[in-house]
UniProtKB/TrEMBL annotation:
Component of the proteasome complex. PANTHER family: METALLOPROTEASE TLDD, PROTEASOME SUBUNIT BETA TYPE-1. This is Proteasome subunit beta. It comes from Craspedostauros australis. Its main location: cytoplasm.
């Protein structure tokens, strides 16, 4: 004899009701609805991370550094904001650029700002750019078991007045390099920077590119990237760091 089955609708989690006709609550799969109807446990997933997109690049010159990033903030296929800066100045001679999870980026910036203020109170001077680069590495490594979901580029002017660019992974491994990029458009940007700036796979003589030419190149790079990456767009914030300070310009991209 088959067990008796009630025709009354089953009450689902979150107040949803699934009838015997096979209705499935919004946000639940048919399998999940069937498990709930039978009283079986249901798996719920939660991730503390979200990838909010964006692209950051950094270029070192003879006596300057250029750090640039777009201002779009996304989640999935939604644009949450068109005017969120991914660049953050730590001293008058260095800038941190971060793509990834916005909340983790904000927390990382806050921790770095606190450490910068402590150093300034103790020594009555700003930290040098290579020292900040090392401190950023140890800050990221300290959180290696629950990492900041932030992918960083860092750049500025060192004690000799030369451009210094540093590339990082999520847990603090880093290296000084001539060009770097991170974020959702990294794969579209790096080949161009490697060829034009780093002068790789070329036979002509390498030359020192003036910062004005690099800024125009950065604009072209982001225009190209914005055509291929849905998470890169709206505006580009371009910061040029020299011994005289930081100069910031904005360049408009496509808004779709």
């Amino acid at each position: 004899m088959k067990p008796f089955r009630s025709a009354a609708p089953a009450v689902m989690p979150h107040g949803h009701i699934a009838s015997t006709e096979g209705d499935v609550p919004i946000g639940m799969t048919a399998g999940g609805a069937a498990d709930a109807a039978r009283g079986n446990p249901i798996e719920h997933r939660f991730s503390p991370y979200d990838f909010n997109g964006g692209t950051c690049i950094a270029i070192a010159g003879k006596d300057y550094a250029v750090i640039a990033a777009d201002t779009r903030l996304s989640s999935g296929y939604e644009i949450l904001s068109r005017n969120v800066s991914k660049l953050h100045s730590l001293t008058s001679k260095c800038i941190l650029g971060s793509a990834g999870c916005k909340t983790d980026v904000d927390q990382l910036r806050s921790v770095m700002d606190i450490k910068m203020k402590m150093y300034h109170h103790d020594h009555q001077k700003e930290m040098s750019t290579p020292a900040v680069a090392q401190m950023l590495s140890t800050t990221l490594y300290y959180k290696r078991f629950f990492p900041y979901y932030a992918f960083n580029v860092f750049g500025g002017i060192d004690e000799e007045g030369k451009g210094a660019i540093y590339s990082y992974d999520a847990i603090g491994s880093y290296e000084r390099t001539a060009v770097t990029a991170t974020g959702s458009g990294q794969a579209y940007v790096i080949p161009l920077l490697d060829n034009v700036i780093a002068h790789r796979n070329r036979t002509d003589e390498k030359r020192d590119i003036p910062k004005e030419e690099v800024v125009e190149l950065v604009k072209d790079v982001f225009l190209s990237c914005g055509e291929r990456d849905i998470y890169t767009g709206d505006q580009v914030e371009i910061c040029v760091v020299t011994k005289d300070g930081i100069e910031t310009t904005m360049f408009q991209l496509k808004a779709d």
